[in-house]
Amino acid sequence: MAFKNLKTKITDLVENSSKVEDTLLHICTLLKSEVSYYDWVGFYFKNGNKNELKLGPYAGTPTDHTIIPFGKGICGQVAVSNKNFVVPDVQAQDNYIACSITVKSEIVIPIFVNGENVGQIDIDSNTLDPFSKKDEDFLEFICTKVATLL
Ligand code: SME
Fold it and tell me: How many domains does the chain have?
């Protein structure tokens, strides 16, 4: 499904959301099934007042990394940088937490509520260098929508 149609579908899911966790899971499964190179899709959120991320809803292989300290891995770096992080080749990254040996690339986009970085969407791909500015724009759109639920 094209990003344009997925945006419409996700807007609809968010506007008709009754339980946040269910809606987030639905977004993960939708993205994983509709975008060929999205192989693991999940949300991480700041864990209370701790300087760490906690895994939220996700679609894909279960990961051991349910808690990630701020600064660690791609996700932990986004928690402190407040910036998108696109990794075309995970093997070229020193500060990277491997979840699966099949993963070749990753994109992490922060979620802001009232200007505060409260979490992120994290996508792993088994394809090398698959992400473009279009993915960033698309995922920023989703993060803005998700923020309205939080
Ligand atoms: N690779 C991430 C860890 C999370 S897994 O991709 C699910 C990282 O380096 O932060």
Answer: 1
Domain containing residue 80: 27-147
pLDDT tens-digit series, residues 54-109: 999 999 999 999 999 999 999 999 999 999 999 999 999 999 999 889 999 999 99
Q: Per the domain annotation, does 5 fall within a domain?
A: no
Atom 7 of ligand 1: nearest residue by CA position = 99
Report the CATH number at residue 64.
3.30.450.40
Cβ atoms 110, 78 nearer than 8 A: yes
pTM for this model (two decimals): 0.96
Substitution site in 87, 97, 107 for ligand 1 pocket (most atoms within 8 Å of beta carbon): 97
